């Protein structure tokens, strides 16, 4: 499919773009600065079909991933609401803050970034996913296996299934249905715990759900 990524020049957006392209998807990397997006796309040329465009043009896709910092999340989605109408929007934004004690979740009035996105994009179908996959591992082409589960949350089971299939673009990963969108708050905030793990153990930790049979999703 054609996948657009809002914030495609940031670490997570770039990493996901690389893996989607390596899996054969057409990728539109979006940015506030189209020239920066073009430079990033050129750096990913060996991965596959990647183009760098302005964020608005990245909405010209079958599915759009939101990978921007939370501070600009609402404003960007509000500005693109008309262009995203009727689209599947995958939100992987983690509302986090940092202080001397480390990372912590930021309170979101709507409950989570994904719920905020669905409120703003009332004519789109929002799914939450890809919060816990290391950007460092995603963007390293020498890494050929990234084990772990991608938690996928949403209201439309058919669309959730589509995103679970997309998770297979990450070699070694598995998409797992993790509930309705209202549960996105715990998924987003758990990223702070993973960052703490990574800092303590100098690693790039992910998560794995046990007790599922092969092929469960």
From TrEMBL:
UniProt keywords, alphabetically: Oxidoreductase
Keyword field contains Oxidoreductase: yes
Domain Pyrroline-5-carboxylate reductase catalytic N-terminal as annotated: residue spans: 2-95
Protein origin, superkingdom: Bacteria
Cellular-component GO terms for this entry: plasma membrane
InterPro entries registered for this protein in UniProt: NAD(P)-bd_dom_sf, NpdG, P5C_Rdtase_cat_N, STEAP_metalloreductase
Biological processes annotated in GO: copper ion import; NADPH regeneration
Protein name listed in UniProt: Pyrroline-5-carboxylate reductase catalytic N-terminal domain-containing protein
GO molecular function, one term: oxidoreductase activity, acting on NAD(P)H
Pfam families: F420_oxidored
């Amino acid at each position: 499919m054609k996948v657009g990524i809002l914030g495609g020049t940031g670490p997570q957006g770039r990493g996901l773009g690389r893996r989607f392209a390596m899996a054969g998807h057409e990728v539109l990397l979006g940015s506030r600065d189209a020239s920066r997006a073009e430079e990033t796309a050129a750096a990913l040329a060996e991965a596959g079909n990647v183009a760098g465009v302005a964020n608005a043009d990245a909405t010209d896709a079958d599915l759009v991933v939101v990978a921007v910092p939370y501070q600009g999340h609402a404003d960007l989605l509000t500005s693109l609401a008309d262009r995203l109408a009727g689209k599947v929007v995958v939100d992987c934004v983690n509302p986090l803050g940092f202080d001397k004690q480390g990372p912590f979740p930021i309170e979101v009035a709507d409950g989570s970034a994904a719920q905020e996105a669905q409120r703003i994009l009332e004519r789109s179908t929002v799914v939450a996913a890809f919060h816990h996959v290391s950007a460092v591992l995603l963007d390293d082409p020498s890494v050929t296996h990234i084990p772990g589960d991608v938690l996928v949350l949403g209201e439309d089971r058919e669309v959730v299934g589509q995103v679970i299939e997309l998770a297979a673009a990450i070699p070694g990963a598995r998409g797992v249905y993790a509930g309705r969108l209202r549960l996105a708050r715990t998924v987003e905030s758990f990223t702070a715990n993973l960052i703490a793990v990574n800092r303590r153990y100098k690693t790039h930790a992910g998560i794995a759900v046990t007790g599922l049979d092969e092929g469960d999703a």
